[in-house]
């Protein structure tokens, strides 16, 4: 078994693409009159390259990567069928070797119509039928192929087989369940590959097509569609990779990882394909263009996916009926060891005792470099700490201050500031709030209007700040102000201060939010701030702000952990009486629950990717914006869905008899609006993603 590193997987994918395009150059080839012979030539190349032998190493990550490439060119090479067939015949050396060398070229068939709608039948030699009710498989030679015109190109086919020479082999039920689960992953992956290619073509088109005197990619309707498609396709790709790793590492929850990936990917592929087709418009509607053939591929694969039963259980069945827990995406061994340590601490006492112990153990400054008194922890360990405390609903406010402000002070602060501020931050007793937003400036922070004018060793600040979370309890404010109103670029005229709130000239007006939390408007009238409280250079505050914001990639873990805990709270109630709460298999509530779980897992893998991109590359990456686009609307949708499942009991507040999680659902539904707009609305996040795709402003 060999898990490929990301760089190696990328190189393997590039190699597969180069090889396949020698005989199947693009999706248009799917409509070629010589498609059967071309597909046979592709199969020859797969054998020559060793792709038919990947089952020997359980190299599912490589198979999934190769299948995604076949989707991009609308080529139905049945690589997952070959992979699964070799696994089914692992104890039958001759059969397995015949499959690897191409003497037997199998396609797998399932169900009562198993010999209809067969993919790649013209290039195959045998059908392997999965006889799930008999715990067996039957392998038979194909004797006749009759192609059927339809959505699929190349055409599906009805086949006849030689039943007289067919061989039936007993297979354990769990092996058959595994086989079907992997086939489902393969179908979803190929659909995603095709949809992703269409999306890339649509972005290229949006960057070049001019309408109404402008490049169409500058229209928000187009750019936001592209951002949504980038989010969906990236999340689905990461989920597929995570599922592959779970299988290869033989985790107990690997099948649930696959079903979460399949559930999300099937919908994501359809959405991405249609949204991309809308951007391409008439250009992609005609068969001279790849998009027409890719459209067929996506919809054909998703249609066949629904014919592959999840006999090991779909997502809702695994979570509700089998009592499984949501699987954790891959983290380092050190991080998982740290998770065990944290859970033991959290279980050891009440919130106050746990927070005190966490401070004593140095968890507040976990991510600071050792030279600044921290532990120099990995990004994975940071994620685990954020997840576990938030899941346990333990407010670790001091950690938030240390995460947002500490690294920035270390990087941009003076030696005097480091000596004065870092010990307070490390104590976990640093109560502060962000002085960013203003009445007319929310996500558009570069255009803030609060002014600061130099007066000797001080600055005189006048203006107004809005929506200050926890400002009513704060002793400090992280304050962004404009110090150069004539700057050629708005970003260039901003300066940042970290200063106390207990001096004249600062007044607060409190507001109770829909969530019940207190937020405040800050009125600054001749507020005098010492220059010693300035962090970074004058007019260089945007660099300082950006540095602080990078930590939000880790803090995204807290939103995802909130939803995870809400899901577990809901599951605890539903498991007591599934029929009463969500109904029998196939009910809309069950389907909704499965999709909520899949979207949660998608947000988690994106959040992990975002945090790592900052840690490794030093950039911000688009994954953080993508994670927010999925996670924050999910909080709204999940809470509404839970209300519909549980009824009025879900709306009971903290302290009310019978409330769920002591009013957690009630609170998070009311707070969900803030999550969507806070820290940059999801529409702004879509704009950021669009820029990362190269779309014009």
Brief description of this entry?
Keywords: FAD, Flavoprotein, Oxidoreductase. The protein is α+β, with helices and mostly antiparallel strands.
Explained architecture:
The chain has helices at residues 6-20, 35-49, 60-72, 79-88, 93-101, 173-208, 220-248, 254-280, 290-305, 315-321, 333-346, 351-360, 379-391, 397-412, 415-426, 541-549, 552-574, 578-581, 588-617, 623-646, 664-677, 682-692, and strands spanning 106-110, 126-131, 136-148, 156-161, 167-170, 210-211, 214-215, 432-435, 451-455, 458-469, 476-482, 494-500, 506-512, 518-530, 534-535. With 697 residues, the chain is α+β, with helices and mostly antiparallel strands. Among the domains are: 176-321, Butyryl-CoA Dehydrogenase, subunit A, domain 3; 333-426, Acyl-CoA dehydrogenase/oxidase, N-terminal domain (Butyryl-Coa Dehydrogenase, subunit A, domain 1, Orthogonal Bundle); 432-535, Butyryl-CoA Dehydrogenase, subunit A, domain 2; 557-692, Butyryl-CoA Dehydrogenase, subunit A, domain 3 (Up-down Bundle). The strands form four sheets. Strands 1, 2, 3, 4 and 5 form a five-stranded mixed sheet that branches. The longest helix is centred in the N-terminal third of the chain and has 36 residues, at 173-208. It is globular, with a radius of gyration of 28 Å. Keywords: FAD, Flavoprotein, Oxidoreductase. Residues 435-513 form the Acyl-CoA oxidase/dehydrogenase middle domain. Its cofactor is FAD. Residues 352-429 form the Acyl-CoA dehydrogenase/oxidase N-terminal domain.
């Amino acid at each position: 078994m060999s898990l490929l590193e990301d760089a190696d997987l990328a190189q393997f994918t590039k190699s597969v693409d180069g090889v396949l395009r020698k005989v199947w150059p693009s999706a248009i080839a799917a409509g070629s009159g010589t498609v059967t012979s071309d597909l046979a030539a592709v199969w020859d190349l797969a054998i020559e390259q060793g792709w038919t032998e990947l089952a020997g190493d359980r190299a599912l990550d490589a198979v999934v990567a190769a299948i995604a490439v076949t989707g991009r060119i609308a080529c139905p090479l049945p690589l997952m069928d070959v992979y699964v067939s070799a696994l089914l015949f692992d104890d039958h050396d001759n059969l397995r070797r015949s499959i690897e060398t191409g003497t037997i070229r199998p396609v797998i068939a399932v169900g009562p119509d198993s010999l209809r709608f067969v993919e790649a039948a013209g290039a195959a030699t045998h059908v392997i039928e999965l006889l799930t009710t008999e715990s067996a498989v039957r392998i038979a030679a194909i004797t006749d192929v009759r192609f059927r015109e339809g959505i699929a190109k190349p055409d599906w086919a009805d086949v006849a087989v030689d039943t007289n020479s067919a061989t039936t082999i007993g297979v354990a039920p769990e092996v058959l369940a595994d086989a079907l689960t992997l086939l489902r992953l393969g179908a979803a992956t190929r659909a995603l590959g095709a949809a992703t290619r269409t999306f890339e073509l649509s972005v290229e088109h949006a960057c070049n097509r001019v309408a109404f005197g402008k490049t169409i990619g500058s229209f928000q309707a187009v750019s936001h569609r592209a951002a949504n498609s980038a989010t969906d396709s990236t999340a689905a790709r990461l989920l597929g990779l995570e599922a592959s790793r779970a299988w290869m590492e033989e985790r107990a929850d690997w099948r649930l990882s696959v079903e979460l990936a399949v559930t999300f990917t099937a919908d994501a592929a359809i959405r991405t394909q249609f949204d991309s087709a809308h951007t391409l418009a008439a250009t992609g509607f005609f068969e001279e263009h790849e998009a027409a053939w890719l459209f067929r591929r996506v919809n054909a694969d998703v249609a066949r996916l629904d014919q592959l039963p999840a006999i090991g259980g779909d997502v809702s069945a695994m979570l509700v009926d089998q009592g499984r827990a949501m699987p954790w995406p891959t983290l380092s061994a050190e991080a998982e060891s740290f998770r065990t340590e944290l859970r033991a601490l959290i279980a050891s006492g009440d919130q106050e005792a746990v927070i005190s112990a966490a401070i004593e153990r140095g968890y507040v400054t976990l991510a600071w470099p050792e030279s600044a008194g921290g532990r120099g922890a990995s990004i994975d360990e940071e994620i685990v700490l954020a997840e576990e405390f938030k899941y346990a609903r333990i407010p670790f406010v001091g950690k938030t201050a240390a995460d947002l402000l500490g690294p920035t002070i270390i990087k941009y602060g003076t030696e005097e500031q480091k000596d004065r501020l870092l010990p307070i931050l490390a104590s976990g007793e640093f109560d502060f709030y962000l002085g960013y937003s203003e009445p007319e400036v929310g996500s558009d922070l570069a255009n803030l209007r609060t002014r600061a004018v130099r007066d000797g060793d001080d600055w005189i600040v006048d203006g107004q700040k809005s929506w200050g979370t926890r400002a009513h309890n704060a002793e400090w404010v992280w304050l962004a102000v404009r110090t150069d109103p004539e700057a050629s670029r708005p970003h260039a005229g901003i300066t940042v201060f970290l200063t106390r709130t207990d001096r004249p000239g600062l007044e607060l007006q409190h507001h109770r939010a829909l969530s019940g939390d207190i937020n405040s408007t800050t009125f600054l009238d001749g507020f005098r701030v010492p220059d010693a409280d300035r962090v970074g250079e004058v007019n260089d505050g945007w660099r300082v702000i950006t540095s602080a914001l990078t930590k939000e990639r880790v803090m995204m873990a807290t939103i995802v952990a909130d939803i995870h805990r809400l899901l577990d709270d809901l599951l605890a109630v539903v498991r007591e009486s599934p029929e009463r709460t969500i109904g029998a298999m196939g009910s809309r509530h069950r389907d909704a629950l499965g999709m909520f779980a899949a979207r949660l897992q998608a947000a988690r893998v994106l959040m992990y990717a975002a945090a790592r991109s900052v840690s490794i590359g030093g950039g911000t990456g688009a994954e953080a914006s993508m994670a927010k686009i999925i996670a924050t609307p999910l909080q709204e949708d999940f809470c509404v869905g839970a209300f519909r499942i549980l009824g009025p009991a879900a709306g009971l507040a903290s302290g009310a008899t019978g409330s769920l999680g002591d009013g957690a659902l009630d609170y998070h539904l009311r707070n969900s609006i803030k999550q969507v707009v806070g820290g940059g609305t999801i529409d702004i996040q879509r704009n950021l993603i669009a820029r990362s795709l190269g779309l014009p402003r």
